[in-house]
Each structure stands twice: as C-alpha cells, then as structure tokens.
C-alpha cells in the first residue's frame, strides 16, 4: 500500500515510517520545508496550501500533526498553538481530499482520548460518549470536525482517539523510565484515578488495522481494554525495573504547579476501546503490566 504521512517527524510519525518500511509499504511525506527527496511534498497547512496531485496513487493518508499537549504549561500562546497545529493541517487535508474524484484514499486522522474529559464516571466511557466541556474536550471536538469535509465527500475517515503511547524510544514513557530507574517512582494524587495508555506496537497495529479494514470509520479509542489506575501503572513500572515505589505527589501540589494541565495527570480518565475490540482487534498488551513489558522490550 502507498501511504501519505502528515506530521511524520515526531515520535509516533517516525515510528510509523519505520514500521511501514519494514512491512514493505511505500510512505511519502508532507513537509513544510523544501523537499529533500522524491518522496517528500511541500505544503503550507496554515495557509491552506496543498497541491491535490499529491494524492495520486495514494491508498492511505495519515494525519498526525499537532504539538504535544502535556509537555508544557497551557499559556494563552500555547493554547492557540495546540489548536492551530491540529486544526489547520486537518482542514487543509480534508478540503483537498473533498475535491478528489474516485478512487479516494482512506483518511486516518489523529485525535485524542482528551475528548472524554477528566471527571469521574460510574462506568467506563466508550466512543458514544459526548465531548467534555473543557479546553481539551472542545479542542478535540473541533479537531475532528475539521476533517468532516472529507468524510462528507465520501472519504472513509477514521479518528484515532489516542491515549498516551508508551515506548522507551520516546513520548511520556521515556522520562518516567529514567525517573523510576533512579528510585523516584511517584504516584500522582492518591493514585486511584484511571490512567489510559497503549503500547506503541498496539498503536501501530491498530492504525494499520484501521487502514486495511474496509468498514472501519468514525472514532476508535486507542487505549488498553483492561483499564489501569495511576497507582497500578506506577507499581508495574517500578516492579519491572526492580525499584521501590515510595513517593506520592499530592494532587493539590500538581495542580499548583501545572494549572489546568494537571487534570490530565490527576483527573480520572476511564475509557475503553469498545469499537476496536468489537471490530476484532486483539491487543498484545491489554493491561498496564503488559504495556510496561512491551515498552521496555522495544529497542
């Protein structure tokens, strides 16, 4: 299959390029600079500029554009960048795809588990739950809405509502592994809040499943089917590294230091991948201990 990737230089995009190449797929890239190879195409998503010929012969378009949500405080400027770095590329791709005639590629659109918010719930949330009325919930809702021109034009569109992807090669797991290795394993708050996650291998497999499953469309939660609490994950990683798990960071202190962003860490996010499981996808790391083992095993 021939893939066209947007947002391919980050942690997930790089892992996806390596994985596609290993499986013999072709992967071209959209870049904002002058192309350096024959498989790179320049675009300007902030200006809405994209040559529609880049879709010629493409089977799957994957959009992973967007700056990190949890790696720095949400100042006014950061909030604007969180929105523009996601919505502008998505809208540009969707409008360009909407102008195409058949055959149409599949659009695998990045999204986030932040759709569901951080308020405690009595039951785990599925893809049918409405978007939360907080900053991230509204951002993710607008992000997915930006792809609607493509879906309305008949493009099979899949939204990957991704939870934190765990792997020793990058993302949130890397600094945690370093801290835990030094004996600094720390539960956040009382540790009872649900903590969504997925192993990188399962994320890669789920993306390919979505690309190759003809009736897959709409939102899918990419998170483990056996939800974990923060305390369970903290202990699992400490045990795997043969280190103690002794520390707690009070929720009030985390909120004082990080403001609204803190809710992504100490808030309760109890979500399950109902549609993915019902579609026949089988996780290789279905729980927190499996995720930790998979993350530490990868090179």
TrEMBL record:
List membrane-spanning regions.
none
What's the superkingdom here? Bacteria
Tell me where in this chain the DUF1731 domain is found: 249-293
Pfam families with a match to the protein in the record = DUF1731, Epimerase
| Residues annotated as domain NAD-dependent epimerase/dehydratase | 4-221
The record's comment on protein family reads: Belongs to the NAD(P)-dependent epimerase/dehydratase family. SDR39U1 subfamily.
Stated name of the protein = TIGR01777 family oxidoreductase
This chain's source organism reads Microlunatus ginsengisoli
Q: What is the lineage of its organism?
A: Bacteria, Bacillati, Actinomycetota, Actinomycetes, Propionibacteriales
């Amino acid at each position: 299959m021939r893939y066209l990737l947007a947002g391919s230089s980050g942690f997930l995009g790089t892992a996806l390029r390596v994985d596609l190449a290993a499986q013999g797929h072709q992967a071209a890239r959209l870049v904002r600079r002058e192309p350096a190879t024959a498989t790179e195409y320049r675009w300007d998503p902030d200006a809405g500029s994209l040559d529609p010929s880049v879709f010629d012969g493409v089977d799957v378009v994957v959009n992973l554009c967007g700056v990190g949500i949890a790696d720095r405080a949400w100042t006014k400027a950061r909030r604007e960048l969180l929105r523009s770095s996601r919505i502008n590329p998505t809208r540009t791709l969707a409008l360009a795809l909407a102008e195409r005639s058949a055959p149409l590629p599949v659009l695998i659109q990045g999204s986030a588990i932040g759709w569901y918010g951080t308020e405690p719930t009595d039951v785990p949330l599925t893809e049918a739950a409405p978007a939360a009325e907080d900053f991230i919930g509204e951002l993710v809702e607008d992000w997915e809405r930006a792809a609607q021109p493509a879906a309305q034009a008949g493009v099979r569109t899949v939204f990957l509502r991704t939870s934190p992807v765990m792997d020793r090669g990058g993302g949130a797991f890397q600094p945690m592994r370093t801290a835990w290795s030094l004996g600094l394993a720390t539960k956040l708050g009382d540790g009872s809040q649900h903590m969504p996650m997925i192993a990188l291998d399962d994320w890669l497999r789920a993306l390919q499943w979505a690309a190759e499953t003809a009736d897959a469309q709409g939102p899918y939660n990419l998170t483990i089917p056996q939800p974990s609490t923060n305390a369970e994950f903290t202990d699992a990683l400490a045990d795997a590294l043969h280190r103690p798990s002794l520390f707690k960071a009070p929720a009030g202190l985390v909120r004082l230091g990080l403001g609204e962003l803190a809710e992504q860490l100490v808030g309760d996010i109890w979500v399950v991948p109902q549609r993915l499981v019902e579609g026949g996808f089988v996780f290789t790391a279905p729980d927190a201990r499996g995720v930790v083992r998979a993350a530490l095993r990868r090179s």
